[in-house]
Amino acid sequence: MRPRVMLRGALVWLLIAAAESAHGIARTLYLQPLVGDRPARQIAVASGAAIVLAIAWLAARWIGAATRGQQLAVGLLWLALTIAFDLALGRRVFGLSWERLLEDFRIWEGRLFPLGLLVLAFAPMIAARWRGLSAGAKQTP
């Protein structure tokens, strides 16, 4: 794995984290009062996935992940950083219990957050495919 690919992947994740934070604030302020908490969170998984895929598409060439393995490594980095960020933010900033934080992972209760995380993990691979960046092809940074 090229260190530059992972560094660039981490920098793009910062943009994703900022965009998703703004998205979460907008969900809480505007959508949640209209439809309630759980439906707002379910809707936000789809719109959040669209945001992640758009950012991944825009950044795919710049990241420079030339193989499926590198693209998956970047996606797994995004996944790990997102889970760590969400748990740290929930615990340290909002003072949420572990029970409350883990509720979002209960897909069997209609929580769709794991599906959003799945999209996040594969977003670099999906974006590279959409951009026509074939595995192993030379990419310009």
Describe this structure in words.
By secondary structure, the chain is mainly alpha-helical. It has one domain (3-130). 78% of the residues lie in helices and 0% in strands. It has helices spanning 3-35, 37-63, 68-93, 98-103, 113-130. The relative contact order is 0.18.
Question: Which terms summarize this structure?
Answer:
single chain; 141 residues; mainly alpha; 5 helices; 0% strand; globular
Q: What's a concise summary of this model?
A:
This protein is an all-alpha fold and 141 residues long.
Rg (C-alpha, Å): 16 Å
Q: Which strand-content bin applies to the residues?
A: under 5%
Give, in order, the helices and strands: HHHHH
Mean pLDDT: 93
Shape: globular
SS element count, helices:
5
The unreliable regions are none
Q: Helix amount, in percent?
A: over 70%
| Termini Cα gap | 15 Å
Say how many strands there are. 0
**How many structurally independent domains?**
1
Q: Tell me the structural class.
A: mainly alpha
- Main beta-sheet strand count, sense and barrel state: none
